[in-house]
Design a protein that fits this description.
Pfam families: DUF308. By secondary structure, the chain is mainly α. It has five helices and no strands.
Amino acid sequence: MWDVIATLLERRMAGNGSPNRVSTVNMALGLATTAGMIIAAFSTIGKALLIFGVWALLSGAIQLAVAIRRRRTVGGQWPMVISGGQSVLAGATVAATSASATSSLSTVAGYSAFGAFWFLVSVIALSIRSRREKG
């Protein structure tokens, strides 16, 4: 769900580069992850965490690259940079520890909470910037 929202926001607020290419890659990554999670649902929690971790790492890298690329033309990208960096680190950690006997789905809850927080901060920062430019 967050991928779809991020894709729609990117299309609306694209500053430069090719938003369609990034959106296509992001959508393909989301579809591949969905297929992987459906398969993992019939397997182990460790496999589901591995798929989730790889998704978080890759989608965070895409988010980080887009934010860095757009920081000069769009501005207000610091929450997106932080969120993308956090996603890369969390994804790598979740993937690396997915085979551990102590791994659990509770890690995903923490990741989701921080992701939702930074997403909200990003929307607020971009909304404030948009109002200042119009006003």
